[in-house]
Design brief:
With 412 residues, the chain is mainly beta. It folds into 2 domains: 3-308, Neuraminidase; 317-411, Sandwich (Immunoglobulin-like). The protein is 4% helix and 42% strand. The chain is built from 3 helices and 30 strands. It has helices at residues 3-7, 203-206, 308-315, and strands spanning 25-30, 41-46, 51-57, 65-68, 74-76, 97-103, 108-113, 118-123, 130-135, 151-156, 162-166, 172-175, 183-187, 190-191, 210-213, 219-222, 227-232, 237-243, 255-258, 264-267, 276-279, 284-287, 297-301, 331-337, 340-346, 351-359, 364-372, 376-382, 390-397, 403-411. Strands 5-4-9-8-7-6 form a 6-stranded mixed sheet, with no helix packed on it. The chain has a 5-stranded mixed sheet with strand order 14-18-17-16-15, with no helix packed on it. A hairpin with a 4-residue loop joins β26 (351-359) and β27. It is globular and about 70 Å long.
Amino acid sequence: MNNKLLLTSALVVGSLLANAQQNKLTYAITGDGNNDYIWMNIRQVDLGTGQVTKTIFERSQSHFSLTDVNTKRVATQNSFTTENIYNAADYPTGTFVAAAAFDKRSNKLFFTPMRRGELRWMNLGAEEPTFYSMPIANYKSVDANDEATNITRMVIGADGNGYALSNDANHLFTFTTSKKPVIKEIGNIIDATDNKGVSIHNKCSSWGGDMIADAFGKLYIISASHSVFMIDPVTRISTYMGTIQGLPATYTTNAAAVNDDGNVVLASANMFDGYYVMKMSDLKAVKMEGSDVKYNASDFANANLLYQKEANSLLNSKVTPVATTPVDAKVFPNPVTNYAFNILFDNRPEGKYTIVVSDLAGRSMMSKVVSIAGGMQTVPVKMNSSSAKGVYIVSVLDANQTVVINEKVVVQ
């Protein structure tokens, strides 16, 4: 088992982005391309073809600056030799990288070097690689042999904030993408009661891999061992969704990014076997023919979100708010008083559904996952009493993230 298999990979208050998926490119943390496992280089990949299109940063070759935002100390390429970069505290990707996230708004690539309790980011708009670094408060650098607390999964969520998770899933962090990020630890991840005995904390099934996000505020862990979990960052509850099918047994899933079709492109850090494309609806992966086989990837980072088309559909819906409840309405009473209402599930198939309440600007005010047994069932929903009075959109999505209920309600 290679190192990356172990090391690797709220209420949402931001906006459900109304734009189409905005970037077919992703940033990849790779080796040198010589059948090596030195994940210190940053390259750009076309998710449509699976081909590397540009080298952004190459170890021992690229001139750079790394500034500690607290001490203002600056390190440059001239400070290092080819041999002393691998464990150097001031080398941007020294000690290797297994977690990265791209913020399109600020054009920054955020990442964490392995075995160091630091958040780093790269200003992608600079003429030459320009990096910044700051410590994660109260999160100490870990021993080289302690893989549990290494941060190996990272993404920018729908709310515009970054999320980062340790290997053992006991440390979930959130950070802003401002000039000097604010980093907070949210807490540990909690296994849902019906996860069929598969724990997100299990080293063999659930460590490593990568993290992606959807347009409704949820996070998804794709572990190195092909397990997929959905995480609600508000409750910190993880729901086991299943195991990816169609991959070679030895193909660890270390990198994941959403393409413009809304599917997930996967790459391995320990196999030079190209990329695979997976649909979230059935977790089946197929090989991307013609994709790169020279560089393995320990992580992907791009700006696309899962289910963006569904989110856009909700925002563009033309449902007319009403003062009284129509006979075919599934949300009642309407208008809503005391911030409480009910949703009628009328002969919906058995399974899990996600309830999303958002304002007319598309900001998700709350989300809730419920289990429906089939037949006629009414689910009570309680909004935060601090919410402003006005018109809100109540949407219900099934397990495939298809919108099955979408109504506007008036909160009085």
